[in-house]
């Protein structure tokens, strides 16, 4: 055999993550093959006789368009089993929560993504689980809540307070208590931290954010190296039907190709802006794990490969002053969400469900890839206007 094609998506082992984002999930290297995976628009797949495990069979069970994205994300998170793509981040969150046995105890950060908290609260309200919310940066306080827990939910950095959880210590403590450990790795991305390496069992993503990266697709994913857990998640996806569209998944993989470059840029700008915002007369507090004086700095330095591109600032004068800053901005886009190429800003308490412990004047900045000085100039003029 002289010109046997290499396996689909195969490439040399031990590539750096910023190569994996480009090289993984490619079609077979055969003559005239496309460089990019195709979008497969088919609701059903040809088959005769009994449907056996691994058959595509039907579009709610699988789609060839999912595979390259699922392989790429698995490789980035360090899982030997393909990820599972879902219709949205919240569909992925719901699937992961379904791994908690009925009536089990779910321990969750009080500053979790509000949609995840809302799902947990709704399940708790109908008796499907018992919810214990915790201050996730306070390791001892979390440990104290783990007795009898069925699942520990981790988010680090948290949204929007950017608290840092001690991933490995908490995962060990949760396992000792007999709980499964799930981490929402949306904020950090696998380029910033790989929770599976810290002993976490299941990682969830809102692919909508940094992975897709262009604010043009809503998508989610779950990653686990555990065969049994993965089989249950596959079943959940197939039966509940929150499946990803082939084109959305293709867009997400296209976004992943530039993720390393995007984050390199946005992270450097976030660090610069956080530094300049610190001590600004219009600002009461700046939260960014990359700032040496940030309460989460040492922990973030120990467990992350980068401090991320989200900065939280608390404007003096509360909601009214913070809204004035947002109004005065011309380049920063006033919108929810994060992780896109364009810089977004939002006063989080404008959402009625946002926890009351989030300050009224807190603005969450999702730093994009624009010129750093242009972003700073816009912020500086808006802060000045709000002060006047
Ligand atoms: C946006 C987000 C989600 C929800 O994802 P969707 O794609 O909007 O459904 C979950 N977790 C975090 C941390 C998020 O930022």
From TrEMBL:
Belongs to the trans-sulfuration enzymes family. It comes from the Bacteria. This is PLP-dependent transferase. Its cofactor is pyridoxal 5'-phosphate. Keywords: Pyridoxal phosphate, Transferase. InterPro entries: Cys/Met-Metab_PyrdxlP-dep_enz, PyrdxlP-dep_Trfase, PyrdxlP-dep_Trfase_major, PyrdxlP-dep_Trfase_small. Coiled coil: none annotated. It holds the Pfam family Cys_Met_Meta_PP. The keyword Transferase applies. GO terms for molecular function: transferase activity.
